[in-house]
Structure formats: structure tokens, C-alpha cells
Amino acid sequence: MAERYSSFRSGSLPWLLQRVTAAFLIVVLAFHFFQLHFISHASEVTFGGTTARMSEWGYFATMVLFLVTATFHGVNGVYAALLNQGLTGTAKRAVQVVLGVAGLALAAQGTYVALVMSGVM
């Protein structure tokens, strides 16, 4: 029987954060689908409607948290998968830097768009 292998020690901070962000994403993704696919159908989603939703602080905060959490969860998951494939040494450090910069850039750009959509900027 094959052994279970994980790049993160069970109970470590990256391991815990991957699970916590997954649970949060399930809840917020359900809210997102309910809001934008059952309350408002795709054909009814407009720029004005998005601006109106984003101007409500609760919706804005939820969507920014959704963005940051999804970014972390995705970047951390890709990194873990690469470690599971045996990534080590200089390549491991290069991947850390590239994924870190890409994650920060994605979160920054998404936050900027959210601020613009909310009317703050």
C-alpha cells in the first residue's frame, strides 16, 4: 500500500492555513454562486450592479477576503504540489520568489479593482 506523502507536516502553519482557507472558500464560494447565479442571473450582472454591490462595505470586505484567501490557497497549493514532486535547492527558492511575487501582484491588482469598483478610487 502506498504511503501518504505531504510536503507540509501535519499541524504546521502552512498545513493549517491550507485547511482554514479551504473551509472559508467553500462558504464564500457558495455565497458568491447564490448571489450571482440565483439572485442575479449572469445576463443581469452589469457594471452598475457590480459597482452598487461593491459600494456596500460588507460585500466589499467579503469579496476582498475572498480574493486574498483564494490567492493564498492557490499559491500555497501549487507550492505544496511542487514540493511533493521533489522540488529542492535553488529551484525551490526560485519558485518561492516567483509564486510570492505573483501572489502579491494578484492580490494587489484585485484589491485595486475592488477599490475602483466600490467608488473609493
Question: Briefly, what is this?
Answer:
This protein is an all-alpha fold.
Layout of SSEs?
Layout: H1 13-39, H2 47-54, H3 57-84, H4 89-118
Helix pairs in contact: 1-3, 2-4, 3-4
Question: Could you explain the architecture of this structure?
Answer:
The chain has a single domain (13-118), classed as 3 helical TM bundles of succinate and fumarate reductases, CATH 1.20.1300. 77% of the residues lie in helices and 0% in strands. It has four helices and no strands. Helix 1 crosses helix 3 and helix 2 (47-54) crosses helix 4. The longest helix has 30 residues, at 89-118. The chain starts with 12 loop residues before the first helix and ends with a helix. The model has no long low-confidence stretch (mean pLDDT 89).
Attribute tags:
121 residues; mainly alpha; 3 helical TM bundles of succinate and fumarate reductases; 4 helices
What's the architecture, going by CATH?
Answer: Up-down Bundle
Count every helix, treating DSSP H or I runs of 4 or more residues as helices: 4
Share of residues in strands: under 5%
Tally of extended strands? Answer: 0
- Poorly predicted sequence stretches spanning 5 or more consecutive residues: none
Q: How confident overall, as mean pLDDT?
A: 89
Radius of gyration: 18 Å
CATH topology: 3 helical TM bundles of succinate and fumarate reductases
**Fraction of residues in helix:** over 70%
Describe the sheet with the most strands: none
Structural category is: mainly alpha
CATH class assignment: Mainly Alpha
Shape verdict:
elongated
